Each structure stands twice: as structure tokens, then as C-alpha cells.
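Q: Focus on the chain.
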Amino acid sequence: MRIVCHREALLNGVSIASSVAPSRSTRPILSGVKIAAKKKQSVALATDLEIAVCARLAEVIVEREGEVVLTAQTLVEILRSIEAAEVTIDCEGRKCRITSEDAEYELVTDDPTDFPEIGPAGRGGVSVPRGFLEEMFQRTAFAAARDVGRYAINGVLVEVGGGEIRFVATDGRRLAVAVRALPDATSDTRRAIVPVKALQECLRGSEGEETVRVLIEDARIVFSSESADIAAKPVEGDFPDYEAVVPQESLGRAEVARGTLYAAIKKASVMSGDEMRAIQISIHDGKIEVTAQVEGRGAAKTAIAAEIEGNDDVTVDFNPDYVADFLKPLPNQ
């Protein structure tokens, strides 16, 4: 294999792929990035066996087709250290030379035939504005469980169909749901519990692009953009029936600017304790009152004006961190 590449373009593609390559693994080859060079398209591949990335490499001249597997961290460091605009990668057997105007490296490679097979992205799926994916991720992923023993909710439920796309996450104590209309999603709803890391890699690999194609298959979910394909195994298990716990009716409504409420929560949370963190939110007399008290330490109280409809006499306790996590990604209106 021999290719001549624009260094920045190669570094960008390799960085997208290498983000999923584990630095340590019982299978050392998984710590590598596989570069497959073909006349029509060159790609960088990496996987941790749960998530696979295929990053398309731009500005590559393929002088001799072939494949090579190089340690991901080493390759990224080499490309970052080189100052020249052009890099040549020349491989014969298990040896590889990386050269530029200002540096030359000789590396021992892994056998590319030992690298796990990464299947191509299937056809179909639905095109989703990338902004939708980023917005819904920010509004839900914080609520996904992190406990090893709660595997079925250690991810974000993604549902596509019926004219919309929906992200849902819960850790058993809080639930976050984000929905966006998607007229192109006209087929029956398909769903998959997607690892949070896979969604992070999707956003990272599609940065700067307008749309991402989302394809939910039986054994994987694939996010495809012009730069890369990210495929992930769905989290196994049955996601809770979240619709059963979402209230369909309410006794009242209080409307307040996001920034104003966020500031009030942060003020009161200073006195909400360290272990059993709690604040009390009371809605009455045209205002929202936020208080917190820790025995032997002190108390905090703040009030903000609000537009209230319906029941104007409500008091409820919250973990302030949960409320802040919800408010943080919202637009400051």
C-alpha cells in the first residue's frame, strides 16, 4: 500500500475513527486503526466490538492499493507532530514508513486480516437534521443510567417513525424525553437503545454537516454522514414503558424564563446539603419560591415572578442537580 495524503485531512479522518479504539484491550489489534486504501475511496476503520467507525478519508492519492493496521494513539501523535502539509504512507508486509518533508517514521504493523470485519452501512433509513440529533442528545443523555447493574437503561432509547424522531433516557429516578417532527419518517416506528458513547461519536463524526442518515436494523443502529458511518450494537433488554409514567393531564402551569429559574435553583442549591440534596419549590401568589435548609448549617430562600395558570398552591421537593441538568441545555429564553 502506498498513499499520499493531505496531513490535516488524514488526521481528521483518523481522529474520528481512533476515538473508539480502546487504549488497552485483551485483543491488542483493537487498539489500532485500519487504513484501507482503494482508488475509488480510502477509509479509516476502528472498533471496540460494540461501536464501529468507518471514516472516509479526503484528499488521498492512492498509488498502490492495500491495507494497514497501525496503533491508533501512535498514528494520531505522528500526524499531529508533523508540520508538513503532505504525508506519504508506504507499507510492505508488516513494515510501514510514514514520511514527510520534516520527518520519517518506521513502524511495525499488525496483520490487517486479523482486524474485525466492519460491514458497510445498509441502505434505507431516514435523513435527520444534525441539529435535531445534537439538541435531543443534550436534552436526554444526562438522564441515562450509569449503573452497571441496570444495563437496559444504560443508553438512550431512539424511536424513528410515525412522522417523528424521539430520544428517551432514564436512570429510574428521572426521565427525559425529546421529540422532533420528521415528515420523512413515514414508516412504522423502529426503536433501539443506543449507547451514549455511540451518540457522542455520531455527533463528533458529523460535525459541520447538515444531515445524518439514521438506520435502525435488527442487530445494529447506523448513523451515516458524508464524513463517516458509526454503527453500534443496541443495548440489550427491555426499556421501561416510559409513556405510562408521563402525566397526560396537569392541575396547573407556571411559566418562567429558563435563565431566571436556573439562577434561582443554583442560589438555593448552595444550602441543599451534600448527601441528601434537596430543595423545595413552592408555587403561589404569582411567584415561584425556592428554598433549601440543612439542619445545623443554615437555609436559603429566593423568589421569582411567574405566569401561573390553574392551581397556584403547589409545593414539591426536588434534587436541585436534576432540575439544573434539565435546564442547562435549554435556550435562554
Notes: The mean pLDDT is 92.
